[in-house]
Automatic annotation (TrEMBL):
InterPro entries named among the record's database cross-references: Aminoacid_DH-like_N_sf, NAD(P)-bd_dom_sf, THF_DH/CycHdrlase, THF_DH/CycHdrlase_cat_dom, THF_DH/CycHdrlase_NAD-bd_dom
GO cellular component: cytosol
Pathway(s): One-carbon metabolism; tetrahydrofolate interconversion
Gene3D superfamilies: Leucine Dehydrogenase, chain A, domain 1, NAD(P)-binding Rossmann-like Domain
UniProt-annotated binding residues for NADP(+): 164-166, 230
Catalytic activity: (6R)-5,10-methenyltetrahydrofolate + H2O = (6R)-10-formyltetrahydrofolate + H(+); (6R)-5,10-methylene-5,6,7,8-tetrahydrofolate + NADP(+) = (6R)-5,10-methenyltetrahydrofolate + NADPH
Protein name, UniProt field: Bifunctional protein FolD
Quaternary structure (record): Homodimer.
Enzyme Commission number(s) from the entry: 1.5.1.5, 3.5.4.9
Domain called Tetrahydrofolate dehydrogenase/cyclohydrolase NAD(P)-binding: residue spans: 138-280
Role, per record: Catalyzes the oxidation of 5,10-methylenetetrahydrofolate to 5,10-methenyltetrahydrofolate and then the hydrolysis of 5,10-methenyltetrahydrofolate to 10-formyltetrahydrofolate.
């Protein structure tokens, strides 16, 4: 029997506790504030953009939302970020990805002040994560770590295989799990004999962006399977990167899609915003 790891339920638990944290910060006269910058109107990002506004409002986090035209110049985007960097009332800055093609993602990420980088995408924060001295960290991997902890699945000593080497999921998750004493293998689209590697995994994380690519034959019996994929099919149905019904026959634990990693990502963003706001309270009291 596979245990489904209920991200929706855990996210709800976090929402209640984050609401209390936000209240405490406000008692010190600080309103936790997240600035969200979206360039263009990518439909997938737009859904995420709106759901974040709603979640922030529920928890008691103020948002400053800016939409810039899809043809914005690099200079204009960086100017907007610098303005947020300098605004004392803003604690977290998030720039919606993906960016339109004329913009240099690396330069945009580097323009965000590391101490306001809620997504943990700035090279300084990535470096800290790799040195096991983490500041803000990427939200999706943080959500995966929270799910493992909730189900008392300690990664220490376990063999982890991650499919996907993105800067948003695969790479930072590898660092977090390494910091938690797991043994890590990162695989990707050029990996030879993928199945032979994944069949050794005690924990398999799939962030490949390929609808339902992972079937039973990739899974070690009883393994923990984390499905990071969110793929919208022509029919409108949302599926993960794991063929869920098939893999359920073999996995010990599995995150569903929807209702698994996705809801945890958003809640981790709020948690990190509060952490950054709290730090500014402590700073002011000194
Ligand atoms: N700077 C930046 N940081 C991000 O973290 C970021 C981003 N840009 N751009 C867009 C992607 C996408 N993303 C999602 C977060 C939550 C769900 C989520 O909650 N999904 C639900 C609902 C799925 C549905 O019904 O559409 C679920 O999986 O259950 C999905 C997608 C964060 N992203």
């Amino acid at each position: 029997m596979t245990v489904l790891m209920d991200g929706k339920k855990l996210a709800q638990k976090y929402r209640l506790s984050l609401k209390k944290d936000a209240e405490l910060i406000k008692q010190h006269g600080v309103v936790p504030t997240l600035a969200v910058l979206m360039i263009g109107e990518d439909p997938a990002s737009q859904v995420y953009f709106k759901s974040k506004q709603k979640l922030a409002a529920e928890i008691g986090i103020a948002t400053i939302d800016t939409v810039m035209p899809v043809d914005s110049s690099q200079q204009a985007v960086i100017r907007q970020i610098k303005q947020y960097n300098e605004a004392a009332n803003i604690h977290g800055i998030l720039v919606e990805l993906p960016l339109p093609p004329q913009l240099d993602e690396k330069a945009v990420m580097e323009a965000i002040a590391p101490e306001k980088d809620v997504d943990g995408f700035h090279p300084y924060n990535i470096g800290r994560l790799f040195m096991d001295d983490a500041g803000p960290v990427p939200c999706t991997p943080a959500g995966i770590m929270a799910l493992l902890a909730e189900y008392q699945l300690d990664p220490a000593g376990k063999r982890v295989v991650i499919i996907g080497r993105s800067t948003i999921v695969g790479r930072p998750l590898a660092a977090m799990l390494l910091n938690a004493d797991a043994t890590i293998t990162i695989t990707h689209s050029k990996t030879n004999e993928l199945e032979r590697i994944t069949r050794n995994a005690d924990i398999l994380v799939v962030a490949a962006g390929q609808p339902e690519m992972i079937t039973q034959k990739y899974i070690k019996p009883g393994a923990i399977v984390i499905d990071v994929g969110i793929n919208r099919l022509g029919s409108g149905k949302i599926v993960g990167d794991v063929a869920q019904e098939d893999v359920k026959q073999r996995a010990g634990y599995l995150t569903p899609v929807p209702g698994g990693v996705g809801p945890m990502t958003s809640v981790m963003l709020m948690k990190q915003t509060l952490k950054l706001a709290k730090r500014s309270v402590e700073f002011e009291r000194r």
